[in-house]
């Protein structure tokens, strides 16, 4: 079975881009986002406030001028994290980036995205819940992730329905499900990653193809 293409008219977006900005503005933005991420990593999303981020030395006025409010800061953090993930996928070191066998790259991506969800899962789940189904699955980051996985699946298992299997691998990484498993079912990130590895074995995507 060959890889099915999406229906006509459904665009596949490129890796997300951001308009160019002044060097000093770019440095301030990077400093604020780094401080915010360090705060979340050490104390969790509940500790993320504009004042706490400003305490890193950028000034609360700068934070508000750059991001507007708490929601704008959180959106920028998730956007920045997604851009870094996409850069790692396209040009970073293997196995997440080019240079490793396709099965290793698939596994590396799934694990890396699980790490993203471990930090931002609850917020991403809230965003997912507001998105219409067609938009959620065929635009934005999901479409980029799907295209990436489909290409690697085609390389690992020529003839497989890579378009379907990419959706099947992304399904367990829906933010709502991931957050439920972590917060309500008590699953560790390690357990979820082990389950993803089991899926790869079940789909025959844990080893290079024999041509």
From TrEMBL:
Keyword set includes DNA-binding: yes
UniProt domain HTH tetR-type: residue ranges: 26-85
Signal peptide: none
Location of region: Disordered: 1-24
GO molecular function: DNA-binding transcription factor activity; transcription cis-regulatory region binding
InterPro entries reported for this sequence: Homeodomain-like_sf, HTH-type_TetR-like_transc_reg, HTH_TetR
Top-rank lineage group of the source organism: Bacteria
Keyword DNA-binding: yes
Stored Pfam families: TetR_N
Keywords of this entry: DNA-binding
Chain intervals with Basic and acidic residues compositional bias: 9-24
PROSITE patterns linked to this entry: HTH_TETR_2
Protein name: TetR/AcrR family transcriptional regulator
Species per Swiss-Prot/TrEMBL record: Actinomadura rubrisoli
